[in-house]
What does this fold into?
Amino acid sequence: MKNEDKFKGEDQVALDMLKIMEEEGLESTFDRVEQQQPQCGFGNLGLCCRHCQMGPCNIDPFGQGPKTGICGADANTIAARHYLRMIAAGTAAHSDHGREVVELFIAVARGEAPGYEIKDLAKLKIVADSFDVKTEGRKTEEIAEEIGELALAEFGKSYGTQTLAKRAPDARQKVWEKLGVTPRAVDREVVEALHRTGMGTDQDYQNLINCAHRVSLADGWGGAMIATDLQDIMFGTPIPTAGTADMGIFKQETVNIAIHGHEPPLAEMLAVVVQEPEFIKMAEDAGASGGITIGGLCCTANEMLTRHGIPLAGHMKMQELVMSTGILEMVLVDVQCIMQADVDLASKFHTTVVTTSPKAKMIGAEHIETHPENALANAKLILKKAIDNYANRDSKKIRLPECNPYANVVSGFSNETIKYMLGGRYRASYRPLNDNIINGRIRGVAAVVGCVSSTVWPDKRPYLDLVKELVSNNVLVIETGCAAAESARAGMMLPEYADHVGESLREVCETVGIPPVLHVGSCVDNTRILVAMSEIVAEGGLGNDFTDLPAVGACLDWMHEKALAIGHYFVASGAIIVFGTESPVAGAPDVHELLTNGLDDTVGAKWIFEPDHSKIARIMIDAIEHKRDLLGINEKKERKLYDMEDRRKLAIDG
Ligand code: SF4
Ligand code: MSK
It folds into this structure.
């Protein structure tokens, strides 16, 4: 690429900021991608093992060098072990988030978490039913405490399987039972995966992939689902909410705080206290005439956007760009997807980085440890610190991009909300969606979810191309995570965007009043999609299991182990998943064949790895049409030409 073209492309706001960073000698994640080249070929193919101190061991993919590691482990074993460890780590990340949420939930029920409350009684009832908790004649707190104790047990119970897995269709539960992969306690699944992947234990790649089913299902139908459910009860189940999504949301005249990470409890308290007149006045007195702006990064942003309309500043790979505006008084982080480089970058400005979780400290950041009992007090303390820091702002270092004109978004499409919008308040149901899929107005549903990666330079925005092609072909798109942030930033999550999609999808969206691209939430909220799929199957007319549905999922630039866990729990649940990268087990042909073909025989689904992003929409649409064929809903109807007799009949009957 010629140097002058380097900073021109589709994500111009990001490229402008990168140009400034380069001119000022500020290192970015994209520079570090270059510094890392060439990256390890063995690692890329899944052929590097360092699970014991005799290693690291590499397998030669060309058959010239070693065919096994020092212990005799072959390519299949090494790749399958590595794959399974990544999924176990992803499961641990979501589920530890879930456990934090449960602990807060119990504290709220016991009155030990000032500022929090049980907000959504309807969702409390839904979750109580799932856990078989009686609600009649009982106090809300009593019900919540019992749910909390049962939810906590899902992480470490000695016997039994995940309670919420019973939400899956019967046919799917039978598949899991037959394979012996119904998930047990989350901790047990993660521990077992780590045990089996160590030196000298599980040496059968098929058995290892079976273990990947069970540990990932413990994520999707366990830890992550619990996080979503209990967050909804405490913070409110998302409903359609207007917001903005752009790097330019922070303002010169306000105290600016970026909330960053994945666990929203502290951000929820911040959202409460920021509205208190005392703090607005404090900000004004400090010289910030506009008060305080809170904006989000990564999935804490998605959580706050979908529930409260708090603006989204950017996704994972924009965190340094947002910080380089020089306009942030504070970056407040919780856990996950936070770059270690953030602290050093912040030191070039007046920006303070504050860590809050005992599980995620950063050298050079200020640590304000937060737990349920002190979250409200800490939110006030943090806000005051940010306000105090306003005086240190250096106006010469500020470069604020223009807020782009397409930055509006309507988010908040939880499962409950979609049903309500489709069927109305008293008959909330997926029936209209099923009917419109059956009659072909909507060809199917595509979940476009997950990460963005710094390995993709922002001259291209592959998610936008993919989503545009899907909706043009009358496929309804649902999104989460950083993929959702991309569409939100491009103005594609607005009801008006229906003007740009296929005609029959447009008709349905306009009738129902939903955008054709729905923001469903954060990474853990992919579990909303599992619940929605279950209810769509239960509604009838589209088969008996997930594998029958004309639905497919994709993640283009996955980077976190969490994304692999999500992808695998969807595959193990019966959905075809496309990842826009090379296969993470490409060096082990048998494991690759199993994931991309062989699983069809057992779980009725498969992985597709396709690094050419321009091919992915076609792959997804073909998969959807194939499912429609199998369901028999693609039958061509003869076009009836009415003669006079028919017309007369119509008039009489009509
Ligand atoms: Fe090498 Fe085997 Fe040890 Fe892995 S477990 S590092 S393949 S000796
Ligand atoms: S933040 S896990 S990059 S979606 Fe959830 Fe984005 Fe992936 Fe992090």
User: Anything to note?
Assistant: The chain has 25 helices and 16 strands. The first helix runs from residue 12 to 23. Residues 650-654 have pLDDT under 50 and may be disordered. The chain has three domains: 75-235, 247-397, 411-631.
